[in-house]
Structures
1.
Amino acid sequence: MATKIYIDQGHNPENPNAGAEGNGLLEQNITYRVGIELAELLRQNPNYEVRLSRPTPTTSLGNSNSTSLRARVEDANAWGADYFISIHTNASSNPQARGVEAFAYSEPSRAFSLGEDIVENLSEATGFLNRGMKIRPGLYVLRRTNMPAVLVEIGFITNPEEAALMNQNPELFARGIYNGIVEYLG
């Protein structure tokens, strides 16, 4: 039986729940594109079944930040996903801040181990600094999902070099995440 992977492309096309901005780019556009590329990679592998929180660029979930997050979690739970991966870009007031990191609800856990493989492979694929795995039990999408959930910060949209690579080559980021999933579930 195929493993069901729910890909949550962080944020909505516009408010409510629009994402960070940096270097003329919007987080929600980057996460949308990386999610679409990741879904394509997973669909080419018969071991995976995929569902996207935002199947189209205009898909908007909820009418507030909290209902937007709830809609993503409820969709994944109702579908019976085996794993939940939420894609985000990081942001900082310091344009030099850089690197890839991810969050899980607790450690040790399947989500934490999956996140470690994703961050390692994403760092290898992009050349970005590996900032490691962190625990964030307060994050709604990690707390309310019925399955192991990882929130991945694929790089800093506020860092000019990282933002440029995200914009020019979303497939590279998708490939890094995909390689991490395959390594973990291998």
Note: Residues 121 and 176 are 5 Å apart (CA to CA).
2.
Amino acid sequence: MESQLSILQESLTAKRQVLLEIQEYNRKQEAVFTAEEVDMSLFDEAIEEKGRLIDRLTQLDDGFDSMYQKLALELENNRERYADQIRAIQQQIREITDLGVSIQAQEARNKSLVEKFFSRERRDIRASRQNSAKAYNFYKSMSSLNAANSESSYDSKQ
């Protein structure tokens, strides 16, 4: 039983480490979108790595849940005997929960930065299209005007 509780604690330690890595990738994503020049390849790399970490997190959660389900009855029946380990596990869970909340806040901030970036990009593309259309219309008008001038000077020479 002691070794199984140690496995639970190791699983929680690994989960905490993965969450810290996710937090670091969130910082990298934030840096990408607060930089003067946005490098989408860095953003893509961070997304891919976070995806891998989230998969790892899911595996750790599944393993923890499976192990805990096997131990739950024994722990419940012998609370006093395993009190120290239970308290240590509960403390780890609180720390992991705090990290999760922090990560959610980071994700919300990053989502806002990404939305602002794409909104700005769409606005710039729209302005560019409008400028292109104006330039094309100006060119077309000037061509028509030049053609009309050429015809009138041709007519007056005859």
Note: The longest helix spans residues 83-157.
3.
Amino acid sequence: MQMLLMYNIEKKKSIEIKNICRKLMISYKKVENSEYGCSIEYLLGLSDNAESKPGEDFSGEMLLMADFNDGFLNIFLTLLRKRKASVDLKAILTDTNRHFTSYELYKELSAEREAIKNGNFYHQA
């Protein structure tokens, strides 16, 4: 089942994203700052390990999409653009990032975005 984690999405955009999710029957969760130290897999309900790592808060918008196949992902992203609800930092759940905390994922996506902005195709971890 598709699941969307939402971070720091302003109210108007959040309403649009939730409407898209309801239309496409996607479960969604607004992740609270107090949950940023939990693993992504815990937030998605894929693990019972509620252990939280220390981290930092962040204010940037971010989406994490779980169980979105390519076709479904394209439909979702197209609707985000059409409804002017696009978010710069987006990730698909992977075997690697499922163990990240929200802050670790945000840091990684921000570094990748900065590398691309500077003309690089990847960043050095």
Note: The mean pLDDT is 92.
4.
Amino acid sequence: MSKRLRDNLSSSYFEAADRLTSKDARRRVVAYVESYDDVFFWRSILSCVENDKLYFEVMLPSRERRLERGKKAALMSVLADKVGRNMIACVDADYDYLEQGATETSRIIIGNPYVFHTYAYAIENLQCYAPSLHEVCVAVTLNDHSIFNFTEYLRQYSQAIYPLFVWSIWFYRTPNYKEYTMNDFLKDIETSNFTVRNAMNQINLLRHKVEKKVASLQHRHPEARQHRQELINDLSRLGVTPDNTYLYIQGHHLFDKVVVPMLEKVCDKLVNERQNEIARESVHGTQRRNELSCYNSRVEDIESMLRKNTGFLSSDIMQHIKSDLTNFVNRTCNTTEEEQMHQTASTDYNDR
């Protein structure tokens, strides 16, 4: 074996070894999140901004050797001044983003450079990102037939609840927030008995219910009228429009009461369609039973697929989150380079 070949093989070996242990050469930043579901969600986002100088490790907060969950636990590291270039918190925005500093938690969410949030109410809202729901159905049913327009339905749903959502935010920004709570709002926007065929009928009933409630609130609080347009303008500046309000209501309500029931009905139809196709095209009974057994074993659970949905990565909100994290990564990496230069300069000086 020639010396040049040995040198090339040796170089390739060490390059491969460096790639296998590349994380050791990068700065680790711990990202504290609220719950186990948040780990995969934030990993999907953080992987988009990692580079050859920095990587993130997503985990739940721990204190006194105990794992903790929840937004408060994730933010405790902020309150204890433990976050910084090596530690961040990634949390749901809830209403804290829309309150724009009206509470202490809101001020932390929007003002601390080491706290990152969803902009949408919670991770569940982004998991339910309307343009991605057809792909969720395909993952569940293995049937790519588009039989329902999820984007249009959630746009109509958003337009129906928007007037009442504005009132909900108005109450939250005033001392009157206990008079019309989030639970009150969620009860007023509940829908029931969704079917693919009567979807728009449900939207029309919801719109009528919202109009009645808005009229009642306007009668009780005529002073709010002069602030309404100002609030609408502010919400628009923050990204909330009549077409995307579903992204800013409570995430669990959207996930459990709106989107999952809708997906169940749509996926049931898609599964039945595929099963009927198998039964129709099978040559004999044995083939039909085998094909149905094979297909049914591959049908996935709706909630599991929805929680793993990363279709939101193409959303406008994702661009805001990514921009915030990219700025953090750039600041951190630049600071690291400055530290290394300072350390090198100090070493050179001492050597002299």
Note: The radius of gyration is 26 Å.
